[in-house]
Design brief:
Number of strands: 9
Strand content: 25-35%
Distance between the termini: 13 Å
Length: 127
């Protein structure tokens, strides 16, 4: 399982892209998608919602369980991936590409996000 080097990761298994013009993209990692199993429903934050780092902002439901979605950063949601709402399996098949979840205009960024290497160590220790 490879984690893209350019992304940063939360301990709750979300990834965050570098911000472009103050906006970053959020998704869940391949590790989380595999642990969930087949995702069948996605409840994402709505455009205009204010999310807070470390707080729940939606949920993903799989054939195995329901899992809370946490925001790795604070800010205002500027886009939610309607493709994932329409086809939640994208979270499993393309977690780092078409399966992204939402975009957020950052108002703050926690200092506890992990590099790809640190995240790999965290998930390796979870196995």
């Amino acid at each position: 399982m490879s984690n893209p080097q350019q992304l940063r990761y939360s301990k709750e298994h979300e990834w965050l892209s570098d911000a472009v013009d103050g906006v970053a993209t959020v998704g869940i990692t391949e590790f989380a998608a595999n642990a969930l199993g087949d995702v069948v429903y996605a409840q994402l934050p709505a455009v205009g919602d204010i999310v807070t780092a470390g707080e729940t902002c939606g949920e993903l439901e799989s054939t195995k369980s329901v899992s809370d979605l946490y925001s790795p950063v604070s800010g205002e949601v500027v886009d939610a991936n309607q493709d994932v709402v329409d086809d939640p399996a994208l979270v499993n098949t393309a977690p780092f590409e078409g399966g992204w979840l939402f975009k957020v205009r950052l108002t703050g960024e926690p200092d506890d996000l992990l590099s790809a290497e640190q995240y790999a160590e965290l998930t390796h220790s979870d196995n």
